Amino acid sequence: MSATSATLEKTPDHVPAELVWDNSFDAFTAEGDDPFLAISRLHEGPGIIWATDASYGRPGWVLTRYDLISEAFVDHEHFSGEREGMPASMLGVNLRLNPIEIDPPAHHGHRRNLNPVFTPKAVNAMGDMVRETCLELIAKFEDKGECDFIEDFAVPFPTYIFLDLMDMPRDKADDFLQWEEDLMRSPEPARRAAAARSIFQYLEEHKKREMEHPTNELNRAITTAQFHDRPLTHIEMMGMYYVLYVGGLDTVYSTLGWIMRHLATHPDLQQRLRDNPDEIPAAVEEFARAFSVVITHRQVREDFTFHGVEMKAGEEVNLPISLADRDPAVFDNPHEVDIDRKPRHINFGTGVHTCLGIHLAKRELRIVVEEFLKRFRNIRIKPGETYRYHTGRTFGIDYLPLVWDEA
Ligand code: HEM
User: Fold this and answer.
1) More confident residue, 58 or 289
2) 360 within ligand 1 shell (Cβ under 6 A)
3) Distance of CA 347 from the midpoint of ligand 1 (Å)
Protein backbone atom coordinates (compact mmCIF):
# COMPACT_ATOMS: atom_id res chain seq x y z
CA MET A 1 0.00 0.00 0.00
CA SER A 2 1.43 3.42 -0.76
CA ALA A 3 -0.30 6.72 -0.23
CA THR A 4 0.78 10.29 -0.94
CA SER A 5 0.97 12.80 1.89
CA ALA A 6 -2.03 14.65 0.36
CA THR A 7 -4.08 11.45 0.64
CA LEU A 8 -2.97 10.81 4.20
CA GLU A 9 -4.11 14.28 5.18
CA LYS A 10 -7.65 13.38 4.06
CA THR A 11 -7.56 9.98 5.77
CA PRO A 12 -9.04 9.68 9.27
CA ASP A 13 -6.37 9.71 11.98
CA HIS A 14 -7.14 6.22 13.27
CA VAL A 15 -6.38 4.60 9.87
CA PRO A 16 -2.74 3.36 9.76
CA ALA A 17 -0.85 4.74 6.76
CA GLU A 18 0.25 1.26 5.67
CA LEU A 19 -3.39 0.21 5.19
CA VAL A 20 -4.32 3.18 3.01
CA TRP A 21 -4.97 2.15 -0.56
CA ASP A 22 -5.12 5.27 -2.70
CA ASN A 23 -6.98 4.02 -5.71
CA SER A 24 -10.39 4.05 -7.31
CA PHE A 25 -11.81 0.64 -6.55
CA ASP A 26 -13.96 0.60 -9.70
CA ALA A 27 -11.12 1.70 -11.97
CA PHE A 28 -8.83 -0.91 -10.44
CA THR A 29 -11.28 -3.78 -10.81
CA ALA A 30 -11.93 -2.79 -14.43
CA GLU A 31 -8.26 -3.09 -15.45
CA GLY A 32 -7.59 -5.70 -18.15
CA ASP A 33 -10.19 -8.05 -19.56
CA ASP A 34 -11.03 -10.00 -16.41
CA PRO A 35 -12.21 -8.13 -13.30
CA PHE A 36 -11.94 -11.27 -11.13
CA LEU A 37 -8.21 -11.45 -11.87
CA ALA A 38 -7.82 -7.69 -11.45
CA ILE A 39 -9.45 -7.57 -7.99
CA SER A 40 -7.51 -10.64 -6.87
CA ARG A 41 -4.30 -8.61 -6.93
CA LEU A 42 -5.53 -7.32 -3.57
CA HIS A 43 -4.67 -10.74 -2.13
CA GLU A 44 -1.03 -9.66 -2.34
CA GLY A 45 -1.65 -6.91 0.26
CA PRO A 46 -3.13 -6.77 3.78
CA GLY A 47 -6.40 -8.47 4.73
CA ILE A 48 -7.96 -5.18 5.71
CA ILE A 49 -7.38 -2.00 3.71
CA TRP A 50 -8.77 1.52 3.72
CA ALA A 51 -9.73 2.47 0.15
CA THR A 52 -9.81 6.20 -0.47
CA ASP A 53 -12.49 5.64 -3.16
CA ALA A 54 -14.17 2.40 -2.17
CA SER A 55 -17.45 3.02 -3.95
CA TYR A 56 -18.96 5.98 -5.76
CA GLY A 57 -16.19 8.26 -4.47
CA ARG A 58 -16.75 7.28 -0.82
CA PRO A 59 -13.83 6.01 1.26
CA GLY A 60 -14.20 2.83 3.30
CA TRP A 61 -12.73 -0.42 4.52
CA VAL A 62 -12.30 -3.35 2.17
CA LEU A 63 -11.84 -6.89 3.53
CA THR A 64 -9.77 -8.98 1.16
CA ARG A 65 -9.75 -12.52 2.61
CA TYR A 66 -12.27 -15.37 2.85
CA ASP A 67 -12.01 -15.66 6.66
CA LEU A 68 -12.42 -11.95 7.33
CA ILE A 69 -15.31 -11.53 4.88
CA SER A 70 -17.09 -14.58 6.33
CA GLU A 71 -16.61 -13.23 9.83
CA ALA A 72 -18.07 -9.83 8.93
CA PHE A 73 -21.12 -11.53 7.42
CA VAL A 74 -21.97 -13.21 10.72
CA ASP A 75 -20.80 -10.58 13.22
CA HIS A 76 -23.93 -8.43 13.44
CA GLU A 77 -22.87 -7.01 16.73
CA HIS A 78 -20.15 -5.01 14.98
CA PHE A 79 -21.22 -4.97 11.33
CA SER A 80 -24.71 -3.70 10.65
CA GLY A 81 -26.76 -4.02 7.46
CA GLU A 82 -29.12 -1.28 8.61
CA ARG A 83 -28.08 1.46 6.28
CA GLU A 84 -30.09 3.78 4.13
CA GLY A 85 -30.12 1.63 1.04
CA MET A 86 -30.09 2.55 -2.61
CA PRO A 87 -33.87 2.77 -3.20
CA ALA A 88 -34.55 4.71 0.00
CA SER A 89 -32.04 7.41 -0.84
CA MET A 90 -33.41 7.74 -4.38
CA LEU A 91 -37.08 7.56 -3.46
CA GLY A 92 -36.94 9.86 -0.49
CA VAL A 93 -39.13 7.43 1.49
CA ASN A 94 -38.05 5.55 4.54
CA LEU A 95 -37.95 2.23 2.71
CA ARG A 96 -35.81 -0.50 4.21
CA LEU A 97 -35.13 -3.43 1.94
CA ASN A 98 -36.80 -6.18 3.89
CA PRO A 99 -35.08 -8.28 5.23
CA ILE A 100 -31.59 -7.40 3.92
CA GLU A 101 -31.46 -4.00 5.63
CA ILE A 102 -32.75 -5.32 8.97
CA ASP A 103 -30.34 -6.69 11.58
CA PRO A 104 -30.96 -9.56 13.98
CA PRO A 105 -32.89 -10.10 16.14
CA ALA A 106 -35.68 -8.32 14.17
CA HIS A 107 -34.39 -9.86 10.91
CA HIS A 108 -35.76 -13.32 11.69
CA GLY A 109 -39.26 -12.00 12.44
CA HIS A 110 -39.40 -10.64 8.89
CA ARG A 111 -37.51 -13.32 6.97
CA ARG A 112 -39.64 -16.15 8.36
CA ASN A 113 -42.56 -14.82 6.32
CA LEU A 114 -40.70 -15.38 3.06
CA ASN A 115 -38.73 -18.56 3.83
CA PRO A 116 -41.55 -21.04 3.05
CA VAL A 117 -41.96 -19.67 -0.48
CA PHE A 118 -38.29 -20.27 -1.37
CA THR A 119 -37.54 -23.70 0.11
CA PRO A 120 -36.01 -26.33 -2.22
CA LYS A 121 -39.44 -27.98 -2.41
CA ALA A 122 -41.18 -24.72 -3.31
CA VAL A 123 -38.51 -24.00 -5.92
CA ASN A 124 -39.01 -27.49 -7.40
CA ALA A 125 -42.56 -26.46 -8.12
CA MET A 126 -41.27 -23.37 -9.98
CA GLY A 127 -38.99 -25.47 -12.21
CA ASP A 128 -41.42 -25.75 -15.13
CA MET A 129 -42.05 -22.02 -15.14
CA VAL A 130 -38.32 -21.30 -15.17
CA ARG A 131 -37.69 -23.73 -18.03
CA GLU A 132 -40.62 -22.40 -20.07
CA THR A 133 -39.33 -18.86 -19.66
CA CYS A 134 -35.87 -19.97 -20.76
CA LEU A 135 -37.27 -21.70 -23.85
CA GLU A 136 -39.55 -18.78 -24.69
CA LEU A 137 -36.54 -16.46 -24.88
CA ILE A 138 -34.34 -18.93 -26.75
CA ALA A 139 -37.08 -19.37 -29.36
CA LYS A 140 -36.71 -15.72 -30.35
CA PHE A 141 -33.14 -16.19 -31.65
CA GLU A 142 -32.73 -19.95 -31.99
CA ASP A 143 -32.93 -19.94 -35.80
CA LYS A 144 -30.63 -16.98 -36.31
CA GLY A 145 -27.44 -18.82 -35.34
CA GLU A 146 -26.35 -15.90 -33.19
CA CYS A 147 -27.46 -13.64 -30.36
CA ASP A 148 -26.26 -11.03 -27.95
CA PHE A 149 -26.53 -13.28 -24.94
CA ILE A 150 -26.92 -10.30 -22.63
CA GLU A 151 -29.63 -8.27 -24.33
CA ASP A 152 -31.46 -11.20 -25.88
CA PHE A 153 -31.35 -13.52 -22.90
CA ALA A 154 -29.57 -12.74 -19.64
CA VAL A 155 -31.31 -9.43 -18.96
CA PRO A 156 -34.92 -10.38 -19.80
CA PHE A 157 -34.74 -13.89 -18.27
CA PRO A 158 -34.81 -12.92 -14.55
CA THR A 159 -37.24 -10.09 -15.26
CA TYR A 160 -39.74 -12.49 -16.84
CA ILE A 161 -39.29 -14.82 -13.88
CA PHE A 162 -39.92 -11.97 -11.46
CA LEU A 163 -43.14 -11.07 -13.29
CA ASP A 164 -44.29 -14.68 -13.19
CA LEU A 165 -43.42 -15.10 -9.51
CA MET A 166 -45.35 -11.96 -8.67
CA ASP A 167 -48.22 -12.85 -10.97
CA MET A 168 -47.74 -9.60 -12.85
CA PRO A 169 -48.76 -9.35 -16.50
CA ARG A 170 -46.11 -10.16 -19.12
CA ASP A 171 -47.05 -6.98 -20.98
CA LYS A 172 -45.27 -5.07 -18.20
CA ALA A 173 -42.00 -6.71 -19.28
CA ASP A 174 -40.91 -3.84 -21.56
CA ASP A 175 -41.52 -1.26 -18.83
CA PHE A 176 -39.67 -3.37 -16.29
CA LEU A 177 -36.72 -3.90 -18.62
CA GLN A 178 -36.47 -0.17 -19.27
CA TRP A 179 -36.71 0.65 -15.55
CA GLU A 180 -34.10 -1.96 -14.78
CA GLU A 181 -31.77 -0.63 -17.47
CA ASP A 182 -32.16 2.92 -16.12
CA LEU A 183 -31.93 1.93 -12.45
CA MET A 184 -28.89 -0.31 -12.76
CA ARG A 185 -26.97 1.13 -15.65
CA SER A 186 -27.88 4.76 -16.42
CA PRO A 187 -25.04 7.21 -15.78
CA GLU A 188 -27.64 9.95 -15.07
CA PRO A 189 -28.73 10.11 -11.40
CA ALA A 190 -32.08 11.71 -12.37
CA ARG A 191 -32.85 8.81 -14.68
CA ARG A 192 -31.93 6.27 -12.02
CA ALA A 193 -34.16 8.03 -9.49
CA ALA A 194 -37.07 8.24 -11.96
CA ALA A 195 -36.77 4.50 -12.60
CA ALA A 196 -36.69 3.78 -8.84
CA ARG A 197 -39.90 5.82 -8.47
CA SER A 198 -41.67 4.10 -11.39
CA ILE A 199 -40.83 0.69 -9.95
CA PHE A 200 -42.00 1.73 -6.49
CA GLN A 201 -45.24 3.10 -7.88
CA TYR A 202 -45.98 -0.03 -9.88
CA LEU A 203 -45.14 -2.29 -6.94
CA GLU A 204 -47.38 -0.17 -4.74
CA GLU A 205 -50.33 -0.54 -7.13
CA HIS A 206 -49.65 -4.25 -7.35
CA LYS A 207 -49.53 -4.55 -3.58
CA LYS A 208 -52.86 -2.74 -3.28
CA ARG A 209 -54.51 -5.21 -5.69
CA GLU A 210 -52.94 -8.15 -3.90
CA MET A 211 -54.10 -6.93 -0.49
CA GLU A 212 -57.68 -7.12 -1.81
CA HIS A 213 -57.30 -10.41 -3.72
CA PRO A 214 -54.02 -12.28 -3.22
CA THR A 215 -53.33 -14.27 -6.38
CA ASN A 216 -50.56 -16.64 -5.29
CA GLU A 217 -48.55 -17.89 -2.36
CA LEU A 218 -45.75 -15.35 -2.62
CA ASN A 219 -48.10 -12.37 -2.70
CA ARG A 220 -50.10 -13.90 0.14
CA ALA A 221 -46.90 -14.39 2.16
CA ILE A 222 -46.13 -10.69 1.80
CA THR A 223 -49.57 -9.17 2.20
CA THR A 224 -50.49 -11.29 5.23
CA ALA A 225 -47.01 -11.20 6.77
CA GLN A 226 -46.71 -10.78 10.52
CA PHE A 227 -43.89 -9.43 12.62
CA HIS A 228 -44.27 -11.30 15.90
CA ASP A 229 -48.00 -10.73 16.48
CA ARG A 230 -48.67 -7.61 14.43
CA PRO A 231 -49.23 -7.26 10.67
CA LEU A 232 -46.46 -5.67 8.65
CA THR A 233 -46.81 -1.97 7.90
CA HIS A 234 -47.31 -0.79 4.33
CA ILE A 235 -43.68 0.30 4.03
CA GLU A 236 -42.37 -2.98 5.48
CA MET A 237 -44.33 -4.88 2.83
CA MET A 238 -43.03 -2.53 0.14
CA GLY A 239 -39.52 -3.29 1.39
CA MET A 240 -40.21 -6.97 0.68
CA TYR A 241 -41.55 -6.35 -2.80
CA TYR A 242 -38.59 -4.12 -3.56
CA VAL A 243 -35.95 -6.53 -2.29
CA LEU A 244 -37.37 -9.33 -4.40
CA TYR A 245 -37.21 -7.03 -7.39
CA VAL A 246 -33.62 -5.87 -6.90
CA GLY A 247 -32.29 -9.12 -5.36
CA GLY A 248 -32.91 -11.45 -8.25
CA LEU A 249 -32.25 -9.42 -11.41
CA ASP A 250 -28.76 -7.98 -11.61
CA THR A 251 -27.27 -10.93 -9.71
CA VAL A 252 -28.75 -13.58 -11.98
CA TYR A 253 -28.08 -11.68 -15.20
CA SER A 254 -24.48 -10.96 -14.21
CA THR A 255 -23.71 -14.52 -13.14
CA LEU A 256 -25.23 -15.92 -16.31
CA GLY A 257 -23.06 -13.62 -18.41
CA TRP A 258 -19.81 -14.89 -16.86
CA ILE A 259 -20.92 -18.50 -17.04
CA MET A 260 -21.75 -18.21 -20.71
CA ARG A 261 -18.52 -16.33 -21.47
CA HIS A 262 -16.63 -19.16 -19.76
CA LEU A 263 -18.45 -21.88 -21.67
CA ALA A 264 -18.05 -19.99 -24.95
CA THR A 265 -14.28 -19.88 -24.44
CA HIS A 266 -13.92 -23.46 -23.11
CA PRO A 267 -15.21 -25.88 -25.74
CA ASP A 268 -13.94 -28.94 -23.85
CA LEU A 269 -15.96 -28.11 -20.76
CA GLN A 270 -18.96 -27.39 -22.97
CA GLN A 271 -18.68 -30.85 -24.50
CA ARG A 272 -18.08 -32.56 -21.17
CA LEU A 273 -21.29 -31.03 -19.76
CA ARG A 274 -23.22 -31.74 -22.96
CA ASP A 275 -22.18 -35.39 -22.73
CA ASN A 276 -22.71 -35.55 -18.94
CA PRO A 277 -25.63 -33.27 -18.03
CA ASP A 278 -25.71 -34.82 -14.54
CA GLU A 279 -22.48 -32.88 -13.88
CA ILE A 280 -24.19 -29.53 -14.51
CA PRO A 281 -25.24 -28.96 -10.84
CA ALA A 282 -21.59 -29.41 -9.73
CA ALA A 283 -20.50 -27.08 -12.54
CA VAL A 284 -23.02 -24.46 -11.37
CA GLU A 285 -21.51 -24.60 -7.85
CA GLU A 286 -18.04 -24.04 -9.26
CA PHE A 287 -19.24 -21.28 -11.58
CA ALA A 288 -20.84 -19.63 -8.55
CA ARG A 289 -17.51 -19.75 -6.74
CA ALA A 290 -15.41 -18.53 -9.65
CA PHE A 291 -17.85 -15.84 -10.73
CA SER A 292 -19.00 -14.33 -7.45
CA VAL A 293 -20.35 -11.07 -8.80
CA VAL A 294 -21.54 -9.28 -5.66
CA ILE A 295 -19.69 -6.70 -3.59
CA THR A 296 -21.91 -6.15 -0.59
CA HIS A 297 -21.29 -3.97 2.43
CA ARG A 298 -21.94 -3.30 6.09
CA GLN A 299 -21.58 -0.37 8.46
CA VAL A 300 -19.47 -0.36 11.60
CA ARG A 301 -22.01 -0.17 14.43
CA GLU A 302 -19.76 1.31 17.11
CA ASP A 303 -16.05 1.99 17.56
CA PHE A 304 -14.16 -1.28 17.94
CA THR A 305 -10.97 -3.09 16.91
CA PHE A 306 -11.23 -5.76 14.22
CA HIS A 307 -8.16 -8.00 13.93
CA GLY A 308 -5.95 -5.24 15.28
CA VAL A 309 -7.50 -2.51 13.10
CA GLU A 310 -9.40 0.32 14.77
CA MET A 311 -12.75 0.97 13.09
CA LYS A 312 -15.14 3.82 13.87
CA ALA A 313 -18.95 3.86 14.05
CA GLY A 314 -20.58 4.61 10.71
CA GLU A 315 -17.62 3.59 8.52
CA GLU A 316 -18.47 1.50 5.49
CA VAL A 317 -17.01 -2.00 5.20
CA ASN A 318 -16.97 -3.52 1.72
CA LEU A 319 -17.16 -7.28 1.27
CA PRO A 320 -16.13 -8.26 -2.26
CA ILE A 321 -17.31 -11.86 -2.33
CA SER A 322 -15.04 -12.76 -5.24
CA LEU A 323 -12.04 -12.02 -2.99
CA ALA A 324 -13.36 -14.64 -0.56
CA ASP A 325 -14.18 -17.17 -3.24
CA ARG A 326 -10.84 -16.79 -5.02
CA ASP A 327 -8.74 -16.63 -1.87
CA PRO A 328 -5.63 -18.77 -2.55
CA ALA A 329 -5.45 -19.65 1.16
CA VAL A 330 -8.76 -21.52 0.80
CA PHE A 331 -8.93 -22.66 -2.84
CA ASP A 332 -6.03 -24.24 -4.78
CA ASN A 333 -5.55 -22.59 -8.16
CA PRO A 334 -8.41 -20.23 -7.39
CA HIS A 335 -8.59 -18.78 -10.91
CA GLU A 336 -9.08 -22.15 -12.51
CA VAL A 337 -12.66 -23.32 -13.07
CA ASP A 338 -12.59 -26.93 -11.92
CA ILE A 339 -16.01 -28.52 -11.76
CA ASP A 340 -14.68 -31.43 -9.68
CA ARG A 341 -13.68 -29.30 -6.73
CA LYS A 342 -16.95 -29.15 -4.66
CA PRO A 343 -16.20 -25.67 -3.34
CA ARG A 344 -17.42 -24.28 -0.01
CA HIS A 345 -18.00 -20.87 -1.53
CA ILE A 346 -19.94 -17.92 -0.09
CA ASN A 347 -21.26 -16.55 -3.37
CA PHE A 348 -24.73 -16.26 -1.81
CA GLY A 349 -23.44 -14.77 1.44
CA THR A 350 -23.38 -16.60 4.75
CA GLY A 351 -25.16 -16.26 8.09
CA VAL A 352 -28.71 -15.05 8.58
CA HIS A 353 -28.77 -12.94 5.40
CA THR A 354 -27.76 -15.87 3.18
CA CYS A 355 -29.58 -15.33 -0.09
CA LEU A 356 -33.29 -16.06 0.18
CA GLY A 357 -33.33 -16.92 -3.53
CA ILE A 358 -30.34 -19.30 -3.43
CA HIS A 359 -32.27 -22.38 -4.58
CA LEU A 360 -34.19 -20.48 -7.21
CA ALA A 361 -31.01 -18.83 -8.49
CA LYS A 362 -29.16 -22.14 -8.78
CA ARG A 363 -32.16 -23.66 -10.53
CA GLU A 364 -32.21 -20.78 -13.00
CA LEU A 365 -28.48 -21.10 -13.74
CA ARG A 366 -28.73 -24.86 -14.12
CA ILE A 367 -31.68 -24.74 -16.49
CA VAL A 368 -30.02 -22.13 -18.71
CA VAL A 369 -26.81 -24.18 -19.00
CA GLU A 370 -28.84 -27.33 -19.73
CA GLU A 371 -31.00 -25.76 -22.40
CA PHE A 372 -28.19 -23.89 -24.19
CA LEU A 373 -25.94 -26.94 -24.30
CA LYS A 374 -28.78 -29.18 -25.44
CA ARG A 375 -29.71 -26.88 -28.32
CA PHE A 376 -26.47 -25.35 -29.51
CA ARG A 377 -23.13 -26.95 -30.43
CA ASN A 378 -19.78 -25.25 -30.35
CA ILE A 379 -21.02 -22.07 -28.71
CA ARG A 380 -18.37 -19.39 -29.16
CA ILE A 381 -17.83 -15.65 -29.13
CA LYS A 382 -18.59 -14.25 -32.57
CA PRO A 383 -15.30 -14.09 -34.53
CA GLY A 384 -13.90 -10.58 -34.69
CA GLU A 385 -15.99 -9.46 -31.73
CA THR A 386 -15.24 -9.24 -28.04
CA TYR A 387 -17.23 -8.97 -24.86
CA ARG A 388 -17.65 -5.86 -22.71
CA TYR A 389 -18.24 -5.74 -18.98
CA HIS A 390 -18.64 -3.33 -16.08
CA THR A 391 -17.58 -3.45 -12.44
CA GLY A 392 -19.13 -1.73 -9.42
CA ARG A 393 -21.45 -3.29 -6.82
CA THR A 394 -21.82 -6.22 -9.20
CA PHE A 395 -19.49 -7.37 -11.95
CA GLY A 396 -21.61 -7.84 -15.06
CA ILE A 397 -21.17 -8.38 -18.78
CA ASP A 398 -22.79 -5.74 -21.00
CA TYR A 399 -22.28 -7.37 -24.38
CA LEU A 400 -21.58 -10.99 -25.27
CA PRO A 401 -22.08 -11.80 -28.96
CA LEU A 402 -22.40 -15.57 -29.45
CA VAL A 403 -22.57 -17.84 -32.46
CA TRP A 404 -23.02 -21.63 -32.56
CA ASP A 405 -23.58 -24.62 -34.80
CA GLU A 406 -26.89 -26.35 -34.90
CA ALA A 407 -27.24 -29.38 -32.66
C1 HEM B 1 -26.96 -15.73 -8.92
C2 HEM B 1 -27.91 -15.05 -8.33
C3 HEM B 1 -27.82 -14.46 -6.96
C4 HEM B 1 -26.73 -14.09 -6.23
C5 HEM B 1 -25.25 -14.19 -6.62
C6 HEM B 1 -27.22 -13.57 -4.97
C7 HEM B 1 -26.39 -13.13 -3.94
C8 HEM B 1 -26.86 -12.73 -2.71
C9 HEM B 1 -26.00 -12.37 -1.60
C10 HEM B 1 -24.49 -12.33 -1.64
C11 HEM B 1 -26.80 -12.06 -0.55
C12 HEM B 1 -26.35 -11.62 0.84
C13 HEM B 1 -26.08 -10.15 0.85
C14 HEM B 1 -25.62 -9.61 2.17
O15 HEM B 1 -25.60 -10.33 3.18
O16 HEM B 1 -25.25 -8.43 2.20
C17 HEM B 1 -28.17 -12.20 -1.00
C18 HEM B 1 -29.28 -11.93 -0.23
C19 HEM B 1 -30.57 -11.95 -0.72
N20 HEM B 1 -30.98 -12.38 -1.97
FE21 HEM B 1 -29.80 -13.10 -3.42
N22 HEM B 1 -28.58 -13.62 -4.96
C23 HEM B 1 -29.00 -14.16 -6.16
C24 HEM B 1 -30.31 -14.40 -6.55
C25 HEM B 1 -31.42 -14.04 -5.83
C26 HEM B 1 -32.78 -14.24 -6.27
C27 HEM B 1 -33.22 -14.95 -7.54
C28 HEM B 1 -33.59 -13.67 -5.31
C29 HEM B 1 -35.09 -13.57 -5.29
C30 HEM B 1 -35.87 -14.52 -5.09
C31 HEM B 1 -32.73 -13.15 -4.26
C32 HEM B 1 -33.16 -12.53 -3.13
C33 HEM B 1 -32.34 -12.22 -2.04
C34 HEM B 1 -32.85 -11.67 -0.79
C35 HEM B 1 -34.29 -11.35 -0.45
C36 HEM B 1 -31.74 -11.51 0.03
C37 HEM B 1 -31.72 -10.97 1.46
C38 HEM B 1 -31.85 -12.10 2.45
C39 HEM B 1 -31.83 -11.65 3.89
O40 HEM B 1 -31.49 -10.51 4.18
O41 HEM B 1 -32.19 -12.46 4.76
N42 HEM B 1 -31.43 -13.39 -4.62
N43 HEM B 1 -28.17 -12.65 -2.31
Assistant:
1) 289
2) yes
3) 9
Cα 12 from Cα 24, distance rounded (Å):
18
Q: Indicate the pairing of strand 295-300 with strand 316-320.
A: antiparallel
User: Cβ(39) to ligand 1 under 6 A?
Assistant: no
* pLDDT on residue 85: 65
Any atom of ligand 1 within 6 Å of the Cβ of 40: no
Supply the residue whose CA is at minimum distance from atom 12 of ligand 1. Answer: 349
Which residue is closest in CA terms to ligand 1's atom 41?
353
Query: Which of the residue ranges 71-75, 124-128, 356-360 would you say has the lowest mean pLDDT?
Result: 124-128
Residue ranges covered by each domain of the chain: 5-406
Distances, alpha carbon 164 to alpha carbons 129, 194, 233, 373, in Å: 8, 24, 25, 25
pLDDT value at residue 109: 97
Q: Which CATH number fits domain 5-406: 1.10.530.10, 1.10.287.130, 1.10.630.10, 3.20.20.370?
A: 1.10.630.10
If you take atom 26 of ligand 1, which residue's CA is the nearest one? 248
Mean predicted lDDT score pLDDT of the chain? 94
Q: Return the closest-CA partner of residue 99 out of 82, 123, 87.
A: 82
Judge if the beta carbon of residue 221 lies within 6 A of ligand 1: no
pTM of the prediction?
A: 0.96
Q: How far apart are CA 232 and CA 243, in angstroms?
A: 15
Give the residues across from 396 on adjacent strands.
390
Q: What is the pLDDT of residues 84-117, one digit of tens each?
A: 666 777 888 888 999 999 999 999 999 999 999 9
Q: Give the Å distance between the CA of 244 and the centre of ligand 1.
A: 9
